[in-house]
Amino acid sequence: MEFTSLVDTSLDLSFRPRQKVLKQEVQSDFTGLSIERENMVVKNEAGDLLEELNRVSSENKKLTEMLTVVCENYNALRNQMMEYMSTQNGVAEDTSAGSRKRKAESISNPVNNNNNNNNNNMDVVHGRSSESSSSDEESCCKKLREEHIKAKVTIVSMKTDASDTSLIVKDGYQWRKYGQKVTRDNPCPRAYFRCSFAPGCPVKKKVQRSIEDQSIVVATYEGEHNHPQTSKPESGPSTNTSTASRLNVTTIAGTTTSVPCSTTLNSSGPTITLDLTAPKTVEKRDMKMNHSTTSPTSGNSIRTTTTTSAAGGEYQNRPEFQQFLIEQMATSLTKDPSFKAALAAAISGKILQHNNQTGRW
DNA sequence: CGAATTTGACCCGCGC
DNA sequence: GCGCGGGTCAAATTCG
C-alpha cells in the first residue's frame, strides 16, 4: 500500500528570495558601475520578489494544510489497516502453509504424501477451509500472509572459505536441502533449505555467496522456529531468528524502508559486518567490525551482518561507529516519505497551535 | 537400507 | 498472452 507515493509530501523549505537580490547587489558592486537605471531595475525586481514571496507563502500555507489532511487520512487508513491485519492474522496463519499445488501432487499416492513434511499436511487441512472463501478474500489473505512472512525475514552473512562450495551454514539447526538454483543477478548458485528438526517447523533459509565477496555467504532466514535449537552452532553465534533478535541480526520487519540501517550485502548501502569471533580485527575503512576466533572444526569465522551487537558493544562507543550510525539513520529517515510527511505535519501542527494561542499569522 | 542431496522439471507471479 | 525468473517438487543418486 504505497499511497504515500501518490502524493508528493516533500516540501522544499529552502526558499531564499533575498539571495537573488544580494547576488545582484554584489554583481553591481563588483563592476563598480552603479548606474541609476540599474538601481531602478533592482528595486522593481525586489518588489516583484516580495510579491512572489507573499504568493509562495500563501501557497505554502495551503499546501501545509493539505498535507495535514493527507497525513490524517494516512494515519486513519493505517490504523484501519492495522486493525484489519490483527483480526485477519489468524486466517492468514491458517493459510500460511502455501497455496501452490503441483499437478503431480493431486494424483500422487498416500505414500508420496508421507514423504512430505507436516507443512504439506497442514496445507491439505487448511486448504479445505480456504476453499470456501471468496477469491477476493483469498488474494487479500495472500497479501497479508506475504507481509506476515516478510516480517520474519532475517539476513545473516558469514565469512567462509571462498573455496568451500558447500553452502552449508552450521547454525545449530538441522536443515534439509530441497533445491538449488542459479539466479540471474548472481552466478553463484542459491541453495534452499528447510528446517528438518521439527516436522511442522515452517522456517526456510536461502544460502548464497555474495556477488561482491565470494568468501561471504549470505543466509536469508524466513519464519520462526517452533522448537528449541537442536545443537550449539559449531562456530560463531547462532544465526537463527530467535537468537537473531538478541544479536540484532538484520531482521526485515514489514518493509525494507522501515529498517533504519539496511545491512544486506546486496543492498547498495554500506555494510556493518560484525565478525563475532575476533575481537581485535577492525577494518576501519568500510566500517566492518571484525571479531573472529578460529572455529574448532572448520576454521571459518561467522560474520553476522547487524546494526548493533551485544558482542560488539565496545565498538558502539567508538566515535566512527556512532557517526556512521547517525549518518545511516539520517539518510534512511530523510529518504522515508512517511517520515517527511509526519515531520511536516508535526511542524505545521505546532505552528498552527502556536498561532491559535497567540492569535497571530 | 534409510536418509540426505542433487538436479531437471514444474508452478506461479510479474513485467512487457 | 507470453516469456522470464524465482521458488519448489520429487525422482534419481549418493552416502553413511
From TrEMBL:
Annotated GO CC locations: nucleus
Low complexity bias locations: 112-121
Chain positions covered by the region annotation Disordered: 90-137, 222-243, 258-316
Cellular localisation: Nucleus
PROSITE patterns the record matches: WRKY
Domain (WRKY): residue spans on this chain: 164-230
Biological process, per Gene Ontology: defense response to bacterium; defense response to fungus; regulation of defense response; response to molecule of bacterial origin; response to salicylic acid
InterPro entries named in the record: WRKY_dom, WRKY_dom_sf, WRKY_plant
Keywords assigned: DNA-binding, Nucleus, Transcription, Transcription regulation
Gene3D superfamilies reported for this sequence: WRKY domain (2.20.25.80)
Composition bias type Polar residues, residue spans: 228-243, 258-271, 290-303
Protein name per Swiss-Prot or TrEMBL: WRKY40
Taxonomic classification: Eukaryota, Viridiplantae, Streptophyta, Embryophyta, Tracheophyta
